[in-house]
Amino acid sequence: xGTETDASxxxxxxxxxxxxxxxxxxxxxxxxxxxxxxxxLQIFNAHPALYIGSKSTFDDPVMxxxxxxxxxxxxxxxxxxxxxxxxxxxxxLVVAPDGDYEIRxxxxxxxxxxxxxxxMGRRWHFFFAWLxxxxxxxxxxxxxxxxxIARDLAPKGRELRHIGSSxxxxxxxxxxxxxxxxxxxxxxxxxxxxxxxxxxxxMLATGLTMSPGMDAAFPFLLDVFGGRQSARTIHFxxxxxxxxxxxxxxxxxxxxxxxxxxxxxxTGRYVIKLPEGQS
Amino acid sequence: xxxxWALDRRRFLTRGLAxxxxxxxxxxxxxxxxxxxxxxxxxxxxxxxxxxxxLLSPTALAREYSEADISADFMANGSTNPDDAAYxxxxxxxFADWRLKVGGLVExxxxxxxxxxxxxxxRTQITRHDCVEGxxxxxxxxxxxxxxxxxxxRLKPSARYVVFYCADDLGETGTEDGKYYESVGLPDAFHPQxxxxxxxxxxxxxxxxxxxxxxRVERQLGYKMAKYVMRIGAVDKIASxxxxxxxFWEDRGYEWYAGI
Lengths: 279, 260
Fold this sequence. Notes:
The complex is a heterodimer. Helices cover 53% and strands 16% of the residues of chain A.
């Protein structure tokens, strides 16, 4: 069914794909995650190194972006699991707006504010963390109550059994048409579920574990994530996973009909092309 | 009707996209400097502070660690050797002439030497020091519970905050404004883990870590843990001290309730 040629498509049907609640929470979430990412990188830059466990082992970070002397020159070196990479100009030693080199983790182009201001970065981060939590709760309550999760996101047993062919179709960039396009594909379902019920809540939980106050109120947080520094590292890795998801998501939106996809997430309406004789 | 609605919606969307675009492209920095943006962002601080008060009971303890967890390389941040003649003279003499003054809204003002403090009840705790920058170190601290000191000085009923005045001029202004100071509310002042430490890892507190005396407020961030404490004052409000936010870093944009 997913292999009809364009010539066989003669009719189209407009379906109402995304409810108002899903559309509004989607775009609020987009804005929150963008601000949280950029202000988060500002906060990370205050000490651009990550560790495992309760405390910082300054001589042995699992990841760090820092300047290092190499002969006469200073280079920006990114250390990852004991390996050193020359990232001069990008990480560790970056190019400032005035063209000079500046010692900092991530460059000014991706932090909020662009200049170094940890206090302001924290203000942005915590404001949008609240908005993210309120928006996320509204989405989850709506999605469970309305059956959105069970109906649209939970994969069916039959879909999971045919996941192999679905992966193969995706690799060949062939997307479902007709009736099948009315539902999320099994890979879509799994990706969205993974982000919604695992990655985003994990961001919140690891973020709270970095708070000495919350650690005193809920000491189990430290045990769940293996200490404050591990929580900070998981927070960073999870945010990277979300960035990766967004990149794949955007590529998929672009190549599977960008205007149709965008319209459906703005107005709710999605056009399905139906082959001859199908209704 | 529906045409007008569509137009309004389109305008709304266009403006939304324009705002998002402006935020993306360098507009961020200008936004961060707008007073109205700061006012809106500060609204969340009220929510965060209230949540902390609601979730964190006055008796909840910060985790205590074992000897094996103690950091070999505890980072000394902020001032590490106060450039102050009076302080240097005290340090040269091993702080034998140093006296901690306790005053303000108390019935019994005090002046205590290190020996006096050592003769008082002591608490030893191995705790994690969380810097606002993101790193953590674990150290063992021994000192007088602040509660013991306040009980001795007897707070007047009007006292609401305890303020710690320090020897170091972290702001390097050469005036009172640059001098480090901190303050805590009464729940934190009387918390069992709030101590004035004169020992670190079993030895007299080293100068980089705040000799002769530093505050430990274990459920808050590192900048609350004032080093080089010279004087303690009980007050009814912090708004009239220095720039009015209750601490050196608080006066420079950081949160007074430093639980997150």
